[in-house]
TrEMBL record, chain A:
Protein name, per record: Carbohydrate ABC transporter ATP-binding protein, CUT1 family
InterPro entries: AAA+_ATPase, ABC_transporter-like_ATP-bd, ABC_transporter-like_CS, ABC_transpr_MalK-like, ABC_transpr_MalK/UgpC-like, Mo/tungstate-bd_C_term_dom, NA-bd_OB-fold, OB_MalK-like
Matches recorded under Gene3D superfamilies: 2.40.50.100, Nucleic acid-binding proteins (2.40.50.140), P-loop containing nucleotide triphosphate hydrolases (3.40.50.300)
Protein localization: Cell inner membrane
A molecular function (GO) term: ATP binding
Keywords: ATP-binding, Cell inner membrane, Cell membrane, Membrane, Nucleotide-binding, Transport
One Pfam family linked to the record: OB_MalK
Keyword DNA damage attached: no
Mode of membrane association: Peripheral membrane protein
The family this protein is said to belong to: Belongs to the ABC transporter superfamily.
NCBIfam families according to UniProt: PRK11650.1
A GO cellular component entry from the record: maltose transport complex
From TrEMBL, chain B:
SUPFAM superfamilies reported for this sequence: MetI-like
Topology with respect to the bilayer: Multi-pass membrane protein
Keyword Transmembrane: yes
Listed PANTHER family: ABC TRANSPORTER PERMEASE PROTEIN, INNER MEMBRANE ABC TRANSPORTER PERMEASE PROTEIN YCJO
Annotated signal sequence range: none
Record-annotated ABC transmembrane type-1 domain positions: 67-281
Keywords, in A-Z order: Cell membrane, Membrane, Transmembrane, Transmembrane helix, Transport
Protein name: Carbohydrate ABC transporter membrane protein 1, CUT1 family
Matching InterPro entries: ABC_transporter_permease (IPR051393), MetI-like (IPR000515), MetI-like_sf (IPR035906)
Protein localization: Cell membrane
GO biological process per UniProt: transmembrane transport
Transmembrane domains' residue ranges: 7-29, 71-92, 104-124, 155-182, 203-222, 259-282
Automatic annotation (TrEMBL), chain C:
Family statement drawn from the similarity comment of this UniProt entry: Belongs to the binding-protein-dependent transport system permease family.
CDD domains noted in UniProt: TM_PBP2 (cd06261)
Biological source species: Pseudovibrio denitrificans
Record protein name field: Carbohydrate ABC transporter membrane protein 2, CUT1 family
TM ranges: 23-47, 85-109, 121-142, 154-177, 198-223, 254-277
UniProt domain ABC transmembrane type-1: residue ranges: 86-277
Amino acid sequence: MSSLSLKNIKKSYGQHEVIHGVDLEVEKGEFIVFVGPSGCGKSTMLRMISGLEEVTSGQISIADKDVTRAHPSKREIAMVFQSYALFPHMSVADNISFGLRLGKTPKDEVKRRVNEVADTLQITHLLERFPRQLSGGQRQRVAIGRAIIRNPQVFLFDEPLSNLDAALRVQMRLEIARLHKRLGATIIYVTHDQTEAMTLADRIVVFNHGVIEQVGRPIDLYERPANKFVAGFLGAPSMNFIGATAQQGAIQLDGFNITDAQKAHANGAITLGIRPEHMRISDTEACDFSAKVELVEELGSESLAYLQTSFSSDPLTMRVDHSITVREGDMLPVSVNREFLHVFEEGGASL
Amino acid sequence: MNQSNTFWRVALLALPLSVFALIIIWPLLSSFYYGFTNWNGFSDNYDFVGFENFGKLFSDRLFMSAAINTIIWMAIAVVLPTVLGLSLALLIDSHVPGGPIFKTIFYLPICLSAVVVGQVWVWIYQPDWGLLNTIIEYVTNDRFNYAWLAKPDSALYSVIVAWSWQATGLSMVIYLAGLTAIPGDLLEVCELEGATTWQRIRHVILPLLTPATVVVVALSVINSLKGFDILYIMTGGGPFNSSDTLAMHMYNESFKKYLMGYGSAISVVLFLVALTIIRLYFKQLKKVDEIYG
Amino acid sequence: MADTATLGSTSGDYVAPKRFNPWPVVIFICLFTLAILFLAPTFGVLLSSVKTTRDIALGDLWAIPSSMYWGNYVEVLSNPAVHGYMLNTFLVAAPATAFSIALGVLAGYVFAKLPFKGSDLVFLLVVSGMFFPPQVILIPLFRLFNLMGLIDTLWPMIIVHTALGIPICTLLMRNFFATVPNPLREAAILEGASEWQVLTKIALPISLPAIAVLATLQFTWIWNDFLWPLIFTQSDEKRTIMLGLVFMKGQYSVAWGIQGAMSLIASLPTLIVFLFFQRYFIKGMTMGAVKG
């Protein structure tokens, strides 16, 4: 059964179209992450699913019911906001039960369900407090509690971790993942952080300029990006791109011994993509190219070396294991893992 | 969502806007209408007299002197409460002990009604035992019983001083709010650059207070245009109309002489003057906002 | 002494820690003198109210009294007309304050949370109403209420003060509602709240400080108003306290002590509001002014 289905969704503000036709099917229980740079339309898409924004054209169904024109509160969705949107003048318990109380649910049932939710999230001791008295992580949990109690078909998360500091973000990320497993709920999660996307998602939806660039499992997107944009957006540090030319599948690059990497359809101007982890310092004489180390960033477990080459104007980033010492100014022999070499045609599509 | 938003916009705005339209906008517009009639305030009959009322303004000696008095009032209102309010704000902002108490004292008059303020100052100016003459007698050691409010030369200015006494507090708190809005690190930069107190005020604080100054000056001018209550209590526009303002003159013509048509014409003038000032004010605010945001 | 030498020096050199800095003292003395001058008028009323008319006429007003004379207060407080004035003023100020705030809340909410094409212009139009001298609407309103037969009742004052309060109340409420985060409204709507419920259950409870500000401002202004009662009332029974004050001056023309006591009693409600809610008062004045 499909939990959420988007059919050719378009959105314009006046003459200006910002979403250019989005199609997506989400299965029940899936964790879907919308990712993309700011202004790519992912938040607008989420707000249209919630009903806070109206769609210009297209159809939204939730649990096989057409809700395209339904009022937000009638869509069986719940949303967790970036700012948490807790009502400052209400206690935690009142915040969580706000919707139930609006719906005139009997008092003892409200109480029972609030306690249930508080139990799940381990915030029972906070129920009488006010949002101001809570830490960022606790506020986050209350906001999630307010969503859970509605028993929605779909949970919508709008960049829920971006207001937290780095350590807490990792912790809450784990907790959201755990919660997803326990509730078996369908989640649409918006973020601009590709790490969150990679770690949380069953499937990632990459947005750019109001269209979906690619949909798929994180590892598929990482290994087989459909185009240059997806390739560059996922993975940190991001993929190195090198301009090159190809003739009948043979790639020509000055100072880079790569003609053996055959790509059948490559012809004319192409872009070569190499991830930093797919380069290594060659231990034999046989290397693909030699490069001068311009700068080294020590990250502890590993280092990032920025390499000057004869064939790329931008320095190339390479991951180096911390056991190998690299110094600035060194000339290194570098070899590339051919298996993970990406080639993109002029328009950006993957070959 | 869109339809329901439109519904709520209409539902929520209906009452406030219709009250505003009925009690403020409509009377404003009909003031223009009455300005072209000779209505006397009571009878149901009145005639259209064309531009007669407006023409009369130029030959009305009292209107001219009221207009001049209003300009004088505005001019003093630009200077007195502004300078006093700024000085007080700077002094209080220097973390002097008792600052909050001083603030309350200077601000206190704002909660008094113009009637009470007027009466208080009538006593200050009282010729026989008023505070002003008592002090002058004490200093000069001589009899002094000048009747400040009863002399055409001094009546208007005496009222303006009393008015400024009340208006200063507002200027002061606006300047104080402006001072607290100045980022502390800017003042620390002054400290590091070795600026003297005077240099700091002259080159950093005063320029940064420009938005506050725009507000203070504009409010003083606008409020001076409204000057009526305190004048009514202290001099009633007298002696011999020497302290009449436009607001006062309008009241006298309309409700003393029942020349409501003519009074309406004066109120139209008043409106146009106010409109000009307000437009200047908004324009200036916008300009200041662009720079100081 | 080295210390005093550095005091006079200007910028540039490092100024050693001073043992004596005259500035705070000078500033304090300045402020203290000004404060006395500023308080003198108010203090004079206080003095007059505890002195007999004879004492004042003899030129003793500004001396500290050796004994308090309470007769002025007895005279004023036992005057039934004063009770009537106070009651009338309250009957005008309380509802007009409440109504104007209620209307300001409604309009301010739309301008802040449900803006539409041209709403900024409408908002500006409403707010500019705050700046015009009341004289420009005096005559038509007099005619309107005269035709309705409401002259010499409290109604015109209640209605006019309600309307005149709309600009400032709309301005302050809009500015306050604008600080209420939009996601709060959206979260409530997702939970099934109607716009009215968002306003009454979310926006309004959060905005109590702004409403306190408006209540103090509006109450004070309406209580102190003189022009509108002057236009709209004729009989003594309908007079408000400020009007009563002026008319009783005739009755007690040279009884300055009684006039002083009367002024003080008339100002008491606003003085109390001011002293207790000074913070709100100042906030409202500056908010209304600066954001104008």
